[in-house]
Amino acid sequence: xxxxxxxxxxxxxxxxxxxxxxxxxxxxxxxxxxxxxxxxxxxxxxxxxxxxxxxxxxxxxxxxxxxxxxxxxxxxxxxxxxxxxxxxxxxxxxxxxxxxxxxxxxxxxxxxxxxxxxxxxxxxxxxxxxxxxxxxxxxxxxxxxxxxxxxxxxxxxxxxxxxxxxxxxxxxxxxxxxxxxxxxxxxxxxxxxxxxxxxxxxxxxxxxxxxxxxxxxxxxxxxxxxxxxxxxxxx
Length: 235
Ligand SMILES: [Zn+2]
Description:
With about 240 residues, the chain is of the alpha/beta class. Helix content is about 30%, strand content about 20%. The strands form three sheets. Strands 7-6-8-5-9 form a five-stranded mixed sheet, with helices on both faces. The chain has a two-stranded antiparallel sheet with strand order 1-4. Zinc ion (ZN) binds near residues 101 and 210.
């Protein structure tokens, strides 16, 4: 779909939360883009004459999330077929910590096999552990796919004493003697940057491996040594 772009201000109260298109029509916007834009402006597409308003909003929202905020694609729980949480505790943001995990299970290298692994983790946490939901905030597959777990704004169940002030990112696989793929590592790094940009993670966040806060081998010796080289790591 072709369209041209202009820099314009995000909707303000004087516009009643609406955005005027090139034809002067207001349309309510629920895009998270503006909330995340510190400059309160965004590159938004001009509304092509032949595009439905809803399509234009969808295009804008997608672009805001993928481009303006530098956020990678995140598969929502409904997109990967996850089960709804049975209970939830809201988490205050921005959080101070980012905690890295591995599943200590099988690796996966395609979106479909990574979805299977993510579903297995969720089933284990909900059925065997009797938790409300999958414990992690997000999971990352070997193909670089990112799966929403509890997401940005719910308290997780992945690192006691840190759950209410951290985002827990799990890279799917066992990384005791090998690293996650470059795609997975980049996806995790991009996810952290996205969280900072969107105001869910403090810009002065502290990165830790799970073993730094709990007696565990997680996220595996080899990967832990790599995580130590990532920005803002602090044992
Ligand atoms: Zn862990």
